[in-house]
Structure formats: C-alpha cells, structure tokens
Amino acid sequence: MNIRRPSLRERLRGNGSAQGALLPGNGRRRISVIESFNYAVEGIIHVLRTHRNMRLHFLAAIVVLVLALVLGVSRIELIVLLISIAFVLIAEMINSAIEAAIDVATSSFDPLAKLAKDIAAGAVLIASINAVAVGYLVFSGQVQESGDNIVDRLRDAPAKLTIIALAIVVILVIATKALTGRGTPLRGGLPSGHAAVAFAAWMAVTQMLDPTEHRFLISMIMLGVASLVAYSRIETGIHSALEVVYGGLLGAGVTLLVFQVFA
Known about the structure:
2 strands; mainly alpha; two-stranded antiparallel sheet
C-alpha cells in the first residue's frame, strides 16, 4: 500500500507533521520518530530556503561561533551564546509559521491578522536585541585579551572545540541541503549529514588524543565506525556515493581546520 506524503497545506491544517500521516481513504497512522525528525528538519530547511532573514541568522550564528573560538570564551559564555542563537532561530521560525498559517486562513486584509504578524515579528526583534546584548557582554571583555592567552585557553578546551566544530558542520549541512534542494533532511540529498557528523567525530577524537594514548588504534576504530555509518547510507539507497563522500569530507575537513587553527 502506497502512503501519500502530506502536503505543506495538509500538515499546517491537519496535524500531518505532528500527529499522523495521511493514508488513502482519509485514514491516519502514527508517524515514526525518524519521520518526525525528518519533518522538523524539513521545516528548518524550508524557512532557510525561502526566508532571507533566516539565512542572515544562520550566517550570524556561524560568525558568532567562529568568534567564540578566536576569542576563547568560557564554557558558561559559550552556553549563553548557544542559547541566544537558538532563541533567535526559534523566534524566526515561529514568526514564519504564524505568517504561513494566517496566509492559509485568509486571503483578504484583516487588522487582527496584521496584528498577529506584527506581534510575531516583535518577538523576533526582542530575541535579536537580546542576542546582540549577550554578544556584546561576552565579546567586549574578550577582545582585550592578548593573542597568546587566547591560544593557550583554546589548547586547554578540546571539548569546546569539538562542540563548536560539530555545530558548524551541522549548520553547513543544513545550509547546503537548503541551497541544493535535493532530498529530505534525514534521507538523501547533498551532503549526507550522517556521514558528515560521523567523520567530524572521528577527526575530533583523533585530534584530542595524545600519541601516548593509543592514538592510532582508537583513531582507526573511530574511522571504521564512521565508514560503517557512511556505507550504511549507500547500502540502504538513501544517499549516493558522491553525497556520502562529500559529507565525510565536509565533516572531517571542517573539524580538522578548527583544531589546526585554534588548538
């Protein structure tokens, strides 16, 4: 039995993305956890592809994460920055969802509809102002630090480098999928996000280990695990070999760059 995937309008109206997928004869079934994640990331990609402000927010997020590496922020400061970034992105997506829902509900001018859109836009503005204030408070004191002290702090923070490298990899994967418009967030498309994250983890572990800690053996084990993840995406027909290779190179390359420049 072929299952028809719900359209955007059906998911907005009929809980398609949250509670059930449509079946022939107006029946419904519970969607799996993987499908739920797929719909969720698809929503992120849709907003990223169709809304300029979301693209600007993603670009700002990458810049902030790079600055966090360069300036060597503390763990607490990094947590605050990540929360602020998430706050802005969530507010922008809620704003976009409200606008889409209103456009579906009415095609004529309605003062209450305009008011709802203005309120949603105001929420984005508050989140953005908060992010700017947090960025200023975090970075203003850091710019006064000398370059040598920055490098010393970064060398003592491999976990911080790993988190930021993985965050940048995930952002680049989502942005690339949005630009290419191929496949779905968790199935198919360029690049393979699973391969990117797996090879990023392999490179991070390799860079963090000292030569005296059986670095070669552990690195080879992690490489084998990453290769199995990548091969499984090809074997199941979800990704082509090119998409998996591109994802692996993206994840490993970005992580290696972060550790070589800042560690």
